[in-house]
Structures are given as C-alpha cells and as structure tokens.
Amino acid sequence: MRHKIKKIVISYILSICCILSFTIGSFKSHNVYASYSRYITARSLTVRKKASIKGKVAGYCIVYFVLDEGEIARIAVDTSCRRQGVGCKILNQVNQICVEKGITRLMLDVRESNESARKFYLSYGFQEDGIRKNFYDMPKEHAVLMSKDIAQ
After folding, report:
1. Which of 18, 47, 72, 131 sits in a 20 to 30 Å window from 39, CA-based?
2. What is the Cα–Cα distance from 2 to 82, expressed in whole angstroms?
3. Is the pTM of this model over 0.85?
4. Rounded to whole angstroms, how far apart are CA atoms 86 and 91?
5. CA-CA distance, 62 to 50, in Å (whole number)?
6. Measured CA distances, 110 to 43, 62, 151 (Å)
C-alpha cells in the first residue's frame, strides 16, 4: 500500500536492525548482515542516513569517504515508499553532506539489469562511467559504474 507522504524525516541511522527487514528484499546478496556490519564498524569514514515516514524507516543510505571522493555503498527505499520522493530526499541530504565535507565526486555501482535504479541515478545527475564485469554474485552480473561531480 502506498502512503501519501507529507513529511520525510532524514536522520542518522542508530541501529542496523531497523533497516534489515526491507533490505533483504532489495538486494540479491545472501549475506546482507555481514556486509552491513562492515559499514557500521567503519564509523570514522562512513555516513549512515535514514528516511522515516511516521516513525517507520522508509529508506537509508550508507556512504563512505576517502580524501575528496565519496562512494554510496548501499541505498534502498522500502517497496511501499518508492516513487514518492524518498530516494531524492536521501540523495539531497548526501549531496549536502558531501558539500560540507569538501567531497568533489560521488560514485556508486548498480546491477546492469536494474534499469529503474539506473534511470533514477541518471535523472539525479549521475553519469555512467563504465562496466565492472562479473562484479555481482547470485546471479553473476556486471556492475555499471556511475559518478556525479559535486558542486562546491
């Protein structure tokens, strides 16, 4: 059931448990918890943001930084909240954090078959930079590398 969104609250993620329930359905990896534990423990280089609607987690993003570049490690929006601006709100917050940190380039990778995500990223100003062959498992699939310059 789709919700009419009046307000999306963006805040720091405090717990891994609040995102796993809809993440498992969003990603094909069989070991989601292990990959998230890696991001959560890298606190000094990682920003974890979530979007909530009426107290329910609607989406989240994990970004890490090295020097003047940022990489979106994970981003997901609950299926019941998609196409309602949640992803845009999250990326707007990430963009603002990048400006504050002096990040000049934001990167990500996405499954080649994920056309809706690729179109979303293109509409947000990302460009396709290349292909990383056989990057994903279950099933084996190429990753499309994308990036966006951050205006300072």
Report:
1. 131
2. 8
3. no
4. 9
5. 9
6. 23, 14, 23
